[in-house]
Design the sequence.
C-alpha cells in the first residue's frame, strides 16, 4: 500500500510541476514593434524588467508591409544584418515561442530600421521547478513498523453513507478550467491593400469588415501614403453623404494611424480628401461588448498623435502609431488549470489510500 501511495504521489508531483503557467510578453507594450523615438534603449529598457523562460511567447505588433521580425545571430544583430536570418515573420501579430535557453536576438530587417533602434535582445532561462506540497511524511522502507513491535492501530471509522456527510465535508471537486486568454486585437484595415481608393469601390472595405468581430479595446491600423490620404471618423449622416464637415476626429499625421475602439456601437471612417470617400474609401464597423482582458493604456506626449481640428472628440480617443492603447496585456500568465488537476488527483489518492 505504501509503495502504491508513493507512485501516485510522484505522478501528482509530475503533473503539477508540468502545469506551470506560461507568460505572454507583448514586445514594447503599447508602442508595439516599430522604430522607437528613444532609439535602441527603448527595447533594452523594456526587456530589462522581464523574466523570459522556456515556453513563454513574444508578441510583436506592427503595421503589415512596414516592418517584420527577423531572428538573427549575435554578429548579425550587432551589424543589423537581416539577410541571413534564422527566420523572418512578415505578418502581424508575430508570435514567437521561446523554446531554447540563452541569448536571443531580433531585429526589423527593413532597411535602416534596426540601426534606428528597432532591435531586441533577451535572455531565456529554464523555468524554476515547482515543488508539489507534501501530502504525508516520507516513510522509508526501513522505518516501517514491525508487526511485533508496532502499536495497535485504532480501528478505521465505518464508511458513512453519502447522505450522512455534512455539507461542509463535501468531496473535493476539480475547479473549472479558466477561460482561454483573449485580449485586444489589432486589425490592419484592408489588410495588404491598406487604406486607399479601392479598385472595386466601397464593397472592398465592407467585405473586409464583415468577417471581423470588433470589441471595445481593439485597435484599427490605417496604412496609407502620407500626404495622399487621411483618416476621419464621422457621423452616420456624414458617412452616407461623404462629407468631412465637422468630423468627430481627423488624423493627418504620418501613417500608420492607430485608432483604439473605446466605445461600443457603430463607427464610421472616411478619407477626407476630395472624391476619395465617394470612390469607396470608407469603412463602417460595429463594436460590441468589451475584451476579456483589461488593458492598461500607456501613452506619452511625445508619441501620441493628436487629431487635427479645433474640437476635441469625447470618444473614441485614437492615437498615432506610438500612442495606441496597449495590445494584449503584457506578461499575463495564462493559467493551464493546474490547480483543478491537482485537486482532482489529490482526491483520487486520498480515496485510494
Sequence:
Amino acid at each position: 500500500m505504501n509503495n502504491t501511495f508513493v507512485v501516485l504521489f510522484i505522478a501528482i508531483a509530475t503533473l503539477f510541476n508540468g502545469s506551470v503557467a506560461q507568460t505572454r510578453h507583448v514586445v514594447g507594450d503599447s508602442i508595439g514593434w516599430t522604430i522607437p523615438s528613444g532609439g535602441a534603449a527603448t527595447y533594452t529598457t523594456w526587456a530589462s524588467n522581464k523574466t523570459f523562460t522556456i515556453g513563454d511567447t513574444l508578441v510583436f505588433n506592427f503595421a503589415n508591409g512596414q516592418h517584420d521580425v527577423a531572428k538573427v545571430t549575435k554578429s548579425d544583430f550587432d551589424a543589423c544584418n537581416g539577410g541571413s536570418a534564422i527566420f523572418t515573420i512578415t505578418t502581424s501579430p508575430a508570435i514567437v515561442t521561446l523554446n531554447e535557453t540563452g541569448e536571443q536576438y531580433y531585429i526589423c530587417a527593413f532597411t535602416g530600421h534596426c540601426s534606428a533602434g528597432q532591435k531586441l535582445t533577451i535572455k531565456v532561462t529554464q523555468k524554476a521547478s515547482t515543488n508539489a506540497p507534501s501530502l504525508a511524511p516520507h516513510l522509508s522502507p526501513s522505518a516501517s513498523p514491525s508487526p511485533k513491535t508496532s502499536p495497535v492501530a485504532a480501528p478505521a471509522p465505518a464508511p458513512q453513507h453519502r447522505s450522512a456527510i455534512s455539507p461542509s465535508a463535501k468531496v473535493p471537486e476539480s475547479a473549472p478550467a479558466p477561460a482561454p486568454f483573449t485580449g485586444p486585437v489589432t486589425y490592419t484595415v484592408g489588410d495588404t491593400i491598406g487604406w486607399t481608393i479601392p479598385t472595386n469601390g466601397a464593397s472592398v472595405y465592407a467585405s473586409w469588415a464583415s468577417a471581423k468581430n470588433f470589441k471595445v479595446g481593439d485597435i484599427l491600423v490605417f496604412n496609407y501614403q502620407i500626404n495622399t490620404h487621411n483618416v476621419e471618423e464621422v457621423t452616420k449622416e456624414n458617412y452616407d453623404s461623404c462629407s468631412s464637415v465637422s468630423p468627430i476626429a481627423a488624423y493627418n499625421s504620418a501613417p500608420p494611424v492607430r485608432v483604439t475602439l473605446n466605445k461600443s456601437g457603430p463607427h464610421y471612417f472616411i478619407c477626407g480628401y476630395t472624391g476619395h470617400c465617394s470612390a469607396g474609401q470608407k469603412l463602417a464597423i460595429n463594436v460590441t461588448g468589451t475584451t476579456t482582458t483589461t488593458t492598461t493604456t500607456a501613452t506619452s506626449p511625445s508619441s501620441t498623435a493628436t487629431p487635427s481640428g479645433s474640437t476635441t472628440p469625447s470618444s473614441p480617443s485614437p492615437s498615432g502609431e506610438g500612442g495606441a492603447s496597449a495590445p494584449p496585456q503584457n506578461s499575463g500568465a495564462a493559467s493551464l488549470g493546474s490547480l483543478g488537476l491537482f485537486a482532482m488527483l489529490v482526491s483520487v489518492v486520498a480515496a485510494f489510500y
